[in-house]
Amino acid sequence: MLGMGIIGWIIIGGLAGWIGSKIMGTDAQQGILVNIVVGIVGGLLGGFLLKLLGVDVEGGGLIFSFLTCLGGAVILLFVVKAVTGRRVHH
């Protein structure tokens, strides 16, 4: 994903962050900027975790990059929800 440039990071990151927030039920609390940040940080987190597992993340292509960002975003949102203890109000 490094070869994509900043616009590619924003587009892929925003889309992955938005879908990740839908999956994790946090979309109502997040705006577009938070979704972009979550997607980009999720991409870095996902790429890091895949490298630890021995996966070649350099030449994965657009779909692989998106799925990496999406997976990382879901993991990131899960951890944030677990740490902050967000609960449904009764």
Helix content: over 70%
Structural class: mainly alpha
Q: Count of DSSP helices?
A: 3
Q: Report the biggest beta sheet as strand number plus sense, adding barrel if it closes.
A: none
The radius of gyration computed from the alpha-carbon positions, rounded to a whole number of angstroms, is 13 Å
The tally of strands reads: 0
User: What's the rounded overall pLDDT mean?
Assistant: 81
| SSE string | HHH
Molecular shape: globular
Uncertain spans, ≥5 residues at pLDDT below 50? Answer: none
The end-to-end distance, rounded to whole angstroms, is 42 Å
Strand content: under 5%
List the helices and strands and how they pair.
Layout: H1 5-24, H2 32-52, H3 61-84
Helix pairs in contact: 1-2, 1-3, 2-3
Task: Walk me through what this model shows.
It contains three helices and no strands. It is mostly helical and 90 residues long. Helix 1 packs across helix 2 and helix 1 crosses helix 3. The protein is globular and about 35 Å long.
Gist?
This protein has helices at residues 5-24, 32-52, 61-84. It has three helices and no strands.
List keywords for this structure.
mainly alpha
